[in-house]
Amino acid sequence: TPHSGTLSSKNYPGTYPNHTTCRWRLRAPPGTSLLLTFGDVDLEPSERCAHSSLLLLLADPQAGTAYAGPYCRNAGPATPLLVTNSSTVTVLFNSTSHRSGRGLLLSYATSQHPGRGVQRPPGLCLALTPLTVCFSVYCPAGCKDIDGDIWGNPSQGYRDTSVLCKAAIHAGVIADELGGQVTLSREKGITLYESAFANGLHSKRWVKRAGAPGLPTCHLPLPACGDVLEVAAFNASSCWHEVDALGQARAWVAERAALGTTGHSWAAEPGSDTAWLELDLGTRRNVTGIITKGSSERYDYYVTSYWVSSSRDGKNWRPYRGSGGQEDKVFEGNIDSQGEVSNAFIPPIVARYIR
């Protein structure tokens, strides 16, 4: 296995399946030992964890095989960090019939990760921090719902006390359903962090108080590029032809959907149940994300959630499901008609047409 990583039960952070047995074997280089961090052990409680359980087998060359567990919701680990004397650990997860439980989320690292020491700051799933200005965090899946606030936005960076795994999801560097390794750089802090809503996460606005020392800013490498793609043509399932009180007509046509358009936006015909907006990029492009905004002119109109489909020929459409998803991904949209909301495509979409 690599020097660090994460593992989780199937469907995590959703309910784990019934009648499942999973086995992972972690093997570190000779002469090192494994450190395990329990991010989440939410198995339905039962006497002696008979219905669902987590059991660790620690291979000690001198003492033989030792056991840790079984663990479940009513008998969890004593501490979130387990320092073993073993270079080989077998993780056993077992479930019978049950009704609830997120399952298992566990991170691991070796005792001699190159240039790094292992720590677990509040809210961080697992951090691997070298003694340089750049450092790396390994974020397991499901970090989106951990406690802690994000201060800042992708373009300006994040305050040093940000929950960095959540900040990486907010910036679109990693997907919450997969997690992953994130490398950061630390620079001199800035005075103002504007808040933003991105990838289903809110960040907060923070202003440095007068006389307060400049806090370092954590910069995340943004995915791919941030260039705005030009749209060759807009199309829509319908558009709203408004007639105001004076009898004047105004069309909320698809072309008005371009971000930054002065005046009103696109709107589907009232009562449309399956409205869609289509963007023709002119040629096949690599699409890494989308930004949406409501129409604040006269009306408080905005879209709260949406699906995305793509096509290379304009005829055959493929729904976007994200990283290994089995269901069409629902993106969180706007919460008002004023603010912009960004969502990243991880992995990116390669297509000419987007709906």
Automatic annotation (TrEMBL):
Residues 218-355 form the F5/8 type C domain. Residues 1-111 form the CUB domain. GO terms for cellular component: plasma membrane. Its main location: membrane. One of its GO terms (molecular function) is signaling receptor activity. It is found in: Membrane. The keyword Membrane applies. The keyword Membrane applies. Keywords: Disulfide bond, Membrane, Phosphoprotein, Transmembrane, Transmembrane helix. Residues 137-203 form the LCCL domain. It is a single-pass type I membrane protein. PANTHER family: DISCOIDIN, CUB AND LCCL DOMAIN CONTAINING 1 (PTHR46806:SF6), F5/8 TYPE C DOMAIN-CONTAINING PROTEIN (PTHR46806). This is DCBD1 protein. It comes from Chordeiles acutipennis (Lesser nighthawk). The gene is Dcbld1_1.
